[in-house]
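for the record, two folds in this file. i put them one after another cuz i was lazy. first one right below, seq on top, structure tokens after. the second one comes after a little note so u can tell where it starts
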Amino acid sequence: MNQIKKHLLLAYRELYPELTFDALVIKVNREFLKGTLQDISNMIGVSKQSVGQWETGVRGISDKTRLKIAEALKFDVNEFKPEYWD
């Protein structure tokens, strides 16, 4: 599973060089779950607009929110750290 996510992340880094690392992690996990913005926002308990802003890098993500996202989407919060993917 992590290898698939890692390949997605590497591909998205090339496709979307303008995105922040946090945005890439959100995008990868949404794609991996095959969820819409609405699905993901329901899982996390935030607005669809917030998820969209995080995914496009318009808005940053606080440490507290990173933990909430990781718990809701059932992935390791360390995925938000670039060294996790090395």
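(here's the note) second protein begins now
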Amino acid sequence: MAESVMRHWRVCAVAAGLIGLLGATAAQAQLRDPTRPPEQWMQGGDAEPAGGPVLQSVLLSPKRKIAVISGQTVALGERYGEATLVRLTESEAVLRTGSESQTLKLFPSIGKRPASDSRNRHPDKSEMRR
């Protein structure tokens, strides 16, 4: 009798384990991997974004100057399509095609303002006491 009870519990434990595995597999199938690149990158091809090349990253070191432009790694002096990467700073890359230059900005929506701009000025201590 004790043996049949133990066998019953083993069968229940195995069944519960299988149900748990099936449930976990179904749950994982619905989750998206947050580290997976966007689908348009996975489709392949050399298609440029609709707005033209995009500066995605810059690596500057004493030995290397590299830009990632629309997913392609380009060293200073190398070609990106028909253009050549002729200048690279921490926030910009300049591509030249013949006599035409195109400046790509790492953060195109961020603009610099002069420090004398009153909107950027912080009050000094004497103004804060008033």
